[in-house]
Design goal:
Structural class: alpha/beta
Number of helices: 18
Oligomer: single chain
Strand content: 15-25%
Strand order of the largest sheet: 7-8-6-9-10-11-12-13-14
Number of strands: 20
Shape: globular
Radius of gyration: 23 Å
Amino acid sequence: MLEFLRGRDVLVAGWGVSGRSLVEPLRDIGAHPVVTDAGAAALAEAAGLGLEVATSVELETADLGRYALVITSPGWRPDSPVLVNAVTAGIPVWGDVEFAWWVDQARLYGPVRKWLVITGTNGKTTTTNMTHAILRAAGIASVACGNIGLPILDALRRSPGPQVLAVELSSFQLHWAPSVRPEAGVVLNVAEDHLDWHGGLDAYAAAKARALVGRVGVVGLDDPVAASLARKSKARRTVGFRIGVPADGELGVVDGKLLDRAFTKAAILAEVGDISPPGPSGVADALAAAALTRSIDVAPQFVREGLVEHRVGPHRAALVRELGGVEFVDDSKATNPHAARSSILAHPSVVWIAGGQLKGASVEDLVEEVAERLVGAVLIGVDAPIVAAALARHAPEVPVLEVQARDDAAMKADAVMAEAVRLAAGLCAGGDTVLLAPAAASLDMFTDYTHRGRSFADAVNALQESDIGRRS
């Protein structure tokens, strides 16, 4: 399958985490990796490791005939000049996930694994971790990998190797991985995100639907776009899950219990109270993880054990602290309005810290839906005025404060967050939740969403009880 690469040059486009993971497998195949990147520091690092490098600028118009294959990092868009040049020259362009699939099929690192693929606009990482927890509870050698942080190739090279991969995949990764045929794959939900990369919602949804091409496809029935993909699924069997009473062929919730009516007549899998994070989105993710693992015959008792064991990771609706009767919750991972919606709806009375880069997504519907739960809002980031305008239209009674970064050192990102947390605390009363659920990306101010979440937690832990307001 990969013999055509032996003794040939392969261009690795992008020297990030996925790019680094390609080097040893390519060498094991007998190929010669050449690294390109737009960053001089990245190329210097690769060259320091003894790799041949080439700038992306010189490759935009160069003759690429020496290369048998281009393997691109997922963030590179299809219209990137280097990739366009390769396609024009008739050179195949794969993503790192596509390459990992063929490495696995070629048994380069042991027997072929079962892939359980998780995608969706929101909830991917939580569902992937839940899936991994269930597999561990069942005694199945497994690993969580892909977009969650560990490259799939690094997972395949582990010794002893896993039997099952819980693979989180983004829309970018799926776009570049047309050959992947998972044992089971789930599309959790589909909302406006990365539309600038894909060119529109239809193309974004089509990329997500590539998870539904294996033996079993799973879709979130409470999400209209994900549910519509069931009709287009190419999986041999497609099932759904919902936060409600399941029909035959579905998983759902009855009397506070997660119920499987897809892979058996009726089996209780867990109690809603067992699920972390609590709330509808957490339960939906648990149902998705249960569907994936039940599709490979994991017994109900192990589904429950895994879900009981699982606890939400940092920056995903994690409780940072309770102070003066107020809970402070870090959901910095809520980087789009759809994710923020689920987060806000999990709490009855919220002071909302929001803002950042909306990436073209609208917050109008979100604000209109959650307005009754908001008792205050503190806005940060480049698109704070857009959120403020939506709040003025749909929640005019809610007090709104803005904190703007300035060029002087005193008001950089961490200082802005500290001020936002202090102001949010002042809007609270006992029983409220101060919720960081920005509905936006973080790169206008922070290194990434984890930096934003750590900044929030540091600011919360610096508060005194006297900082809590006494809203009447």
